[in-house]
Design brief:
alpha+beta; Rossmann fold; OB fold (Dihydrolipoamide Acetyltransferase, E2P); 5-stranded antiparallel beta sheet; 3-stranded antiparallel beta sheet; 6 helices; elongated
Length: 249
Protein backbone atom coordinates (compact mmCIF):
# COMPACT_ATOMS: atom_id res chain seq x y z
CA UNK A 1 0.00 0.00 0.00
CA UNK A 2 0.89 3.67 -0.05
CA UNK A 3 2.89 5.27 2.73
CA UNK A 4 1.17 7.66 5.12
CA UNK A 5 3.23 10.51 3.70
CA UNK A 6 2.18 9.71 0.12
CA UNK A 7 -1.47 9.54 1.16
CA UNK A 8 -1.29 12.91 2.91
CA UNK A 9 0.43 14.49 -0.10
CA UNK A 10 -2.22 13.09 -2.44
CA UNK A 11 -5.07 14.33 -0.23
CA UNK A 12 -3.52 17.78 0.00
CA UNK A 13 -2.95 17.93 -3.76
CA UNK A 14 -6.57 17.02 -4.58
CA UNK A 15 -8.00 19.40 -1.98
CA UNK A 16 -5.82 22.19 -3.33
CA UNK A 17 -6.91 21.35 -6.88
CA UNK A 18 -10.56 21.78 -5.86
CA UNK A 19 -9.86 24.79 -3.63
CA UNK A 20 -11.13 23.13 -0.43
CA UNK A 21 -7.96 23.06 1.69
CA UNK A 22 -9.59 25.54 4.06
CA UNK A 23 -12.36 23.00 4.73
CA UNK A 24 -10.11 20.15 5.90
CA UNK A 25 -11.10 20.48 9.59
CA UNK A 26 -14.83 20.96 8.96
CA UNK A 27 -17.55 18.34 9.51
CA UNK A 28 -19.72 17.34 6.50
CA UNK A 29 -22.92 18.70 8.05
CA UNK A 30 -21.38 22.17 8.26
CA UNK A 31 -20.61 22.33 4.51
CA UNK A 32 -22.72 24.15 1.93
CA UNK A 33 -24.11 22.38 -1.13
CA UNK A 34 -21.24 23.47 -3.35
CA UNK A 35 -18.64 22.56 -0.72
CA UNK A 36 -20.17 19.10 -0.29
CA UNK A 37 -20.07 18.56 -4.03
CA UNK A 38 -16.39 19.51 -4.17
CA UNK A 39 -15.64 17.23 -1.22
CA UNK A 40 -17.42 14.32 -2.93
CA UNK A 41 -15.41 14.84 -6.12
CA UNK A 42 -12.18 15.08 -4.09
CA UNK A 43 -13.00 11.83 -2.28
CA UNK A 44 -13.35 10.09 -5.65
CA UNK A 45 -10.16 11.62 -7.08
CA UNK A 46 -7.90 10.90 -4.14
CA UNK A 47 -7.63 7.20 -5.08
CA UNK A 48 -6.30 8.21 -8.53
CA UNK A 49 -9.10 6.60 -10.57
CA UNK A 50 -8.77 5.76 -14.25
CA UNK A 51 -12.47 6.48 -14.76
CA UNK A 52 -14.73 8.95 -12.96
CA UNK A 53 -18.53 8.54 -13.12
CA UNK A 54 -20.44 11.77 -12.43
CA UNK A 55 -24.21 11.41 -12.18
CA UNK A 56 -25.75 14.89 -12.59
CA UNK A 57 -23.22 16.54 -10.23
CA UNK A 58 -24.58 20.05 -10.84
CA UNK A 59 -28.31 19.31 -10.65
CA UNK A 60 -28.98 20.72 -7.16
CA UNK A 61 -26.70 23.76 -7.35
CA UNK A 62 -27.52 27.37 -8.16
CA UNK A 63 -26.20 29.01 -11.32
CA UNK A 64 -23.10 30.50 -9.68
CA UNK A 65 -22.05 27.20 -8.12
CA UNK A 66 -22.73 25.35 -11.36
CA UNK A 67 -20.29 27.60 -13.18
CA UNK A 68 -17.66 27.14 -10.46
CA UNK A 69 -17.91 23.35 -10.31
CA UNK A 70 -18.01 23.13 -14.11
CA UNK A 71 -14.77 25.12 -14.32
CA UNK A 72 -13.19 22.84 -11.71
CA UNK A 73 -14.22 19.71 -13.63
CA UNK A 74 -12.50 21.11 -16.72
CA UNK A 75 -9.41 21.79 -14.61
CA UNK A 76 -9.45 18.21 -13.28
CA UNK A 77 -9.68 16.77 -16.76
CA UNK A 78 -6.89 19.03 -18.00
CA UNK A 79 -4.47 18.47 -15.10
CA UNK A 80 -5.18 14.83 -14.19
CA UNK A 81 -6.19 13.50 -17.59
CA UNK A 82 -8.86 11.31 -16.01
CA UNK A 83 -11.63 9.96 -18.25
CA UNK A 84 -15.09 11.09 -17.15
CA UNK A 85 -18.52 9.64 -17.85
CA UNK A 86 -20.84 12.55 -17.18
CA UNK A 87 -24.59 11.92 -16.92
CA UNK A 88 -26.82 14.95 -17.42
CA UNK A 89 -30.16 16.14 -18.77
CA UNK A 90 -28.65 19.58 -19.39
CA UNK A 91 -27.59 20.10 -23.00
CA UNK A 92 -25.35 23.07 -22.16
CA UNK A 93 -23.38 20.96 -19.67
CA UNK A 94 -22.94 18.17 -22.21
CA UNK A 95 -21.80 20.61 -24.87
CA UNK A 96 -19.43 22.42 -22.51
CA UNK A 97 -17.81 19.40 -20.86
CA UNK A 98 -18.14 16.53 -23.32
CA UNK A 99 -15.65 15.55 -26.02
CA UNK A 100 -18.11 12.90 -27.18
CA UNK A 101 -21.81 12.83 -26.35
CA UNK A 102 -24.00 9.72 -26.20
CA UNK A 103 -27.71 10.49 -26.61
CA UNK A 104 -30.13 8.11 -24.91
CA UNK A 105 -33.82 7.59 -25.59
CA UNK A 106 -36.00 5.11 -23.72
CA UNK A 107 -32.94 3.64 -21.99
CA UNK A 108 -30.98 3.02 -25.19
CA UNK A 109 -28.06 4.87 -26.78
CA UNK A 110 -29.32 6.08 -30.16
CA UNK A 111 -26.22 7.92 -31.38
CA UNK A 112 -22.74 9.05 -30.30
CA UNK A 113 -20.52 11.87 -31.52
CA UNK A 114 -19.10 15.30 -30.84
CA UNK A 115 -21.61 18.12 -30.44
CA UNK A 116 -20.90 19.31 -33.99
CA UNK A 117 -21.31 15.78 -35.38
CA UNK A 118 -24.65 15.36 -33.62
CA UNK A 119 -25.90 18.69 -34.97
CA UNK A 120 -25.03 17.56 -38.49
CA UNK A 121 -27.10 14.39 -38.19
CA UNK A 122 -30.57 14.62 -39.69
CA UNK A 123 -32.47 13.04 -36.80
CA UNK A 124 -35.66 14.69 -35.58
CA UNK A 125 -35.16 13.51 -32.02
CA UNK A 126 -31.78 15.26 -31.86
CA UNK A 127 -32.86 18.67 -33.08
CA UNK A 128 -35.06 19.34 -30.06
CA UNK A 129 -32.61 17.79 -27.57
CA UNK A 130 -29.38 19.51 -28.54
CA UNK A 131 -30.52 23.11 -28.45
CA UNK A 132 -31.27 25.23 -25.35
CA UNK A 133 -34.93 25.44 -24.39
CA UNK A 134 -37.14 28.39 -23.50
CA UNK A 135 -39.22 27.68 -20.40
CA UNK A 136 -41.96 30.25 -19.75
CA UNK A 137 -44.51 30.39 -16.95
CA UNK A 138 -47.99 30.60 -18.38
CA UNK A 139 -51.68 30.59 -17.57
CA UNK A 140 -54.64 29.25 -19.50
CA UNK A 141 -56.75 31.76 -21.40
CA UNK A 142 -59.10 29.36 -23.13
CA UNK A 143 -59.41 26.01 -24.80
CA UNK A 144 -60.21 26.26 -28.49
CA UNK A 145 -61.33 23.67 -31.07
CA UNK A 146 -59.16 21.00 -32.68
CA UNK A 147 -57.21 20.15 -29.54
CA UNK A 148 -55.62 23.58 -29.17
CA UNK A 149 -55.25 25.95 -26.26
CA UNK A 150 -54.52 29.66 -25.92
CA UNK A 151 -52.08 30.49 -23.11
CA UNK A 152 -50.64 33.69 -21.74
CA UNK A 153 -46.90 33.80 -21.04
CA UNK A 154 -46.15 37.31 -19.79
CA UNK A 155 -46.08 39.37 -23.02
CA UNK A 156 -46.83 36.42 -25.31
CA UNK A 157 -50.19 34.93 -26.16
CA UNK A 158 -49.48 31.54 -27.70
CA UNK A 159 -51.57 28.93 -29.47
CA UNK A 160 -50.39 25.40 -28.70
CA UNK A 161 -51.52 21.79 -28.69
CA UNK A 162 -52.40 20.36 -25.31
CA UNK A 163 -53.37 17.25 -23.41
CA UNK A 164 -56.59 17.34 -21.43
CA UNK A 165 -55.42 18.47 -18.02
CA UNK A 166 -56.88 20.77 -15.40
CA UNK A 167 -53.83 22.95 -14.76
CA UNK A 168 -51.23 24.68 -16.89
CA UNK A 169 -48.02 26.09 -15.44
CA UNK A 170 -45.47 26.53 -18.21
CA UNK A 171 -44.57 26.08 -21.86
CA UNK A 172 -41.32 24.69 -23.24
CA UNK A 173 -40.01 25.81 -26.64
CA UNK A 174 -36.73 24.58 -28.17
CA UNK A 175 -34.63 27.57 -29.20
CA UNK A 176 -34.09 26.13 -32.67
CA UNK A 177 -37.87 26.29 -33.15
CA UNK A 178 -38.03 30.03 -32.52
CA UNK A 179 -37.66 31.07 -36.15
CA UNK A 180 -36.17 34.50 -36.75
CA UNK A 181 -36.78 36.54 -39.92
CA UNK A 182 -36.44 40.11 -41.12
CA UNK A 183 -39.67 40.05 -43.11
CA UNK A 184 -43.10 39.44 -41.62
CA UNK A 185 -44.06 35.76 -42.07
CA UNK A 186 -47.18 35.00 -44.07
CA UNK A 187 -48.49 32.77 -41.32
CA UNK A 188 -50.24 34.74 -38.58
CA UNK A 189 -50.24 32.31 -35.65
CA UNK A 190 -47.57 32.77 -32.96
CA UNK A 191 -45.83 35.60 -34.83
CA UNK A 192 -44.29 38.40 -32.77
CA UNK A 193 -42.20 41.50 -33.23
CA UNK A 194 -38.98 41.24 -31.22
CA UNK A 195 -35.72 43.06 -30.60
CA UNK A 196 -32.25 41.50 -30.60
CA UNK A 197 -30.70 41.86 -27.14
CA UNK A 198 -27.58 39.72 -27.50
CA UNK A 199 -25.82 37.57 -30.10
CA UNK A 200 -23.22 34.88 -29.42
CA UNK A 201 -21.43 32.61 -31.86
CA UNK A 202 -21.04 29.23 -30.16
CA UNK A 203 -18.97 27.06 -32.47
CA UNK A 204 -21.05 27.12 -35.68
CA UNK A 205 -24.33 28.19 -34.07
CA UNK A 206 -25.70 31.68 -33.51
CA UNK A 207 -27.38 32.02 -30.11
CA UNK A 208 -29.65 35.06 -30.26
CA UNK A 209 -31.39 36.53 -27.20
CA UNK A 210 -34.60 38.34 -28.12
CA UNK A 211 -37.07 40.45 -26.19
CA UNK A 212 -40.78 40.68 -26.83
CA UNK A 213 -41.50 43.64 -24.59
CA UNK A 214 -40.27 42.27 -21.23
CA UNK A 215 -40.22 38.58 -22.20
CA UNK A 216 -36.86 37.09 -23.19
CA UNK A 217 -36.52 34.24 -25.69
CA UNK A 218 -33.57 32.32 -27.10
CA UNK A 219 -33.30 31.54 -30.80
CA UNK A 220 -30.56 29.42 -32.35
CA UNK A 221 -29.59 29.09 -35.99
CA UNK A 222 -26.64 27.78 -37.99
CA UNK A 223 -24.12 30.29 -39.31
CA UNK A 224 -25.22 29.51 -42.88
CA UNK A 225 -28.62 31.14 -42.29
CA UNK A 226 -27.51 34.66 -41.47
CA UNK A 227 -24.80 37.14 -42.33
CA UNK A 228 -23.10 38.40 -39.13
CA UNK A 229 -23.87 42.00 -40.09
CA UNK A 230 -27.61 41.20 -40.09
CA UNK A 231 -27.74 40.16 -36.43
CA UNK A 232 -27.13 43.50 -34.78
CA UNK A 233 -28.03 44.22 -31.16
CA UNK A 234 -31.06 46.51 -31.01
CA UNK A 235 -32.38 45.46 -34.42
CA UNK A 236 -36.09 44.66 -34.75
CA UNK A 237 -37.02 41.29 -36.21
CA UNK A 238 -39.96 38.91 -36.47
CA UNK A 239 -40.14 35.57 -34.70
CA UNK A 240 -42.49 32.72 -35.45
CA UNK A 241 -43.07 29.67 -33.25
CA UNK A 242 -44.90 26.75 -34.90
CA UNK A 243 -47.71 25.29 -32.81
CA UNK A 244 -46.37 21.73 -32.95
CA UNK A 245 -43.11 22.66 -31.21
CA UNK A 246 -44.71 24.24 -28.13
CA UNK A 247 -45.12 21.86 -25.21
CA UNK A 248 -47.62 22.88 -22.53
CA UNK A 249 -46.91 21.42 -19.08
Amino acid sequence: GLSERTIKERVRYVMDLLDILHLRDRYPLTLSGGERQRAAIARALVIDPKLLLLDEPLSNLNVGLRLQISAELKKIRRELGVTMIYVTHNVDEARELGDRIAVMDDGKIITVGSYEELLAKKMNILSDILYPHNVLKCSLIEKIPEGLVKVRCRDLTLIATFEDRSRFSKVVIPSNRVYLSFEKPRIRVNVFRAKIIDVKLNRNIYEVTLSVNETLLKSTASIERFNPSELKIGKSVYIQIPIRYITVL
